[in-house]
Structure formats: structure tokens, C-alpha cells
Design brief:
Largest sheet: 4 strands, mixed
Helix content: 25-40%
Order of helices and strands: EEEEHEEH
Number of helices: 2
Distance between the termini: 43 Å
Low-confidence stretches: none
Radius of gyration: 17 Å
Mean pLDDT: 80
Number of strands: 6
């Protein structure tokens, strides 16, 4: 399922396409579900899997992420406690705008 979002590099927005496996909802909560196979990919200690889940959680604006091991038939909810106080939704857009404005101001100051 494609999902577009943007990241800023040196204050300039870059469109990034993500392809999440599934967006699911249960009891009014929205999750990104990532389906993995094999012995290494479905393990949260795998840095590539962990980074992917973290990016999906942030980019999709979901309440959480699910790590699905297709071989074992298990579904595990993964959370990132350090993000508990991070802004979300409209608040996240405000922070992105503030970051872009700050980056532009610094760039203007450094390169008159």
C-alpha cells in the first residue's frame, strides 16, 4: 500500500514514497502491519527491520506498528517509548513547518 510523505534535507522538502504492507484497524486504533519471512527479518533485534518499523510508525501517523512473522503465524505489536511524547497529526505538521522555517533562516544567515 503506497504512502507518500516528505522529509527535509537542508530545509528543502523531498517527496518519499513508502510501501507499507498493510494498514489495519482494531477497536478504533490504526496500525501499520509489516509482514516478514525468514529467520532474520521478523526479529526486532534486526536493525533494518527496526528502522523500517520506526519509519513506518512516524510516516503513516499510525498509533502503532505490527510485526507479522508469516512463517510462524505470529503478530507482535511494537512500540517506541521514546516517541510517546512526540507530536502527531496536525501538531507534527506545525513542527515540520517550524523546522523548515528555522532551516531557511539559518541558511539565509550563513549564506547572505
Amino acid at each position: 500500500m503506497p504512502h507518500a510523505w516528505s522529509v527535509h534535507v537542508d530545509g528543502l522538502a523531498h517527496a518519499v514514497d513508502l510501501r507499507v504492507d498493510l494498514l489495519v484497524e482494531k477497536a478504533g486504533r490504526r496500525f501499520v502491519a509489516e509482514v516478514k519471512t525468514g529467520k532474520v527479518a521478523p526479529v526486532i533485534e534486526n536493525p533494518a527491520t527496526r528502522r523500517q518499523l520506526l519509519e513506518y510508525h512516524h510516516a503513516a501517523g499510525a498509533e502503532g506498528v505490527l510485526l507479522v512473522d508469516a512463517d510462524l503465524g505470529t503478530v507482535r505489536e511494537v512500540s517506541f517509548p521514546a516517541l510517546a511524547g512526540a507530536p502527531s497529526g496536525l501538531s507534527r505538521l506545525a513542527w515540520l513547518g517550524l523546522g523548515a522555517a528555522t532551516g531557511a533562516a539559518v541558511a539565509w544567515f550563513l549564506h547572505p
